[in-house]
Amino acid sequence: MKQLAYAVAAVVLVSTPLTVLSAQPKGTIDLFYVLSPELELEADGVGSVDLEEGDGFGAKGLFNLSPQLFLAGEYQANSYDEVEGISIDAELDQMRGGAGFRFSADSPFYVLGEFIRIDVEFEGESEDDSGFGVHLGANSPVADSLNFYGQFGYVDVGGDGLEFLAGLAFMFTRQLGGFVDYRHSSLDEDGAEATLSDLRVGLRIALN
Q1: 9: which residues sit within 8 A by CB, 6+ positions away?
Q2: Which residues, in sequence order, are bridge partners of residue 135?
Q3: Which stretches of the chain drop beneath a pLDDT of 50?
Q4: pTM of the predicted model as reported, rounded to 2 decimal places
Q5: Distance, CA of 129 to chain centre
Q6: 158: exposed, middle or buried (C-beta count within 10 Å: 0-12, 13-18, 19+)?
């Protein structure tokens, strides 16, 4: 259970929408809600179980140091209330911070490396661990005040595996906007696999 918890927690740590519109050179701060996070645990010879009927919240930020260099950070807390129809009390908190580099000042592509720390609690038992993530991403405008972003990465926090993220960010004004994104991650450790899917919606504050 401890190893599975580490693997599950790592899932949450690998993705942040890294959208910075040219009109907001200093960065963004996002406040968001996680809609019904889904978590599936599967082990060889045992089968799979689904943790569901929960929600989550968080905050994340991106801060430009130069046209190409930026810092990124996130805190997110997910809760799960049910597994296979049985009520449970499970929480997964994560904190991360890292630095990224855009290929050029005008390029939509970037690379991001980050340090990861997690805290998993299940029925009063808690564990924490730390690790890292490495990601390749892109952020590109598709219309006025509307951006598409995508990210693909590898993480290692107790278990290791791949993750992808895709989303849209839109600005109502120069200072205020919103976003919606979906991320899916799958981690393996010693014959056990954890898969997490999150749909997140939030408010974006531009730092002008």
Answers
A1: 92, 94, 118, 119, 120, 129, 157, 158
A2: 112, 153
A3: 1-24
A4: 0.82
A5: 17
A6: buried
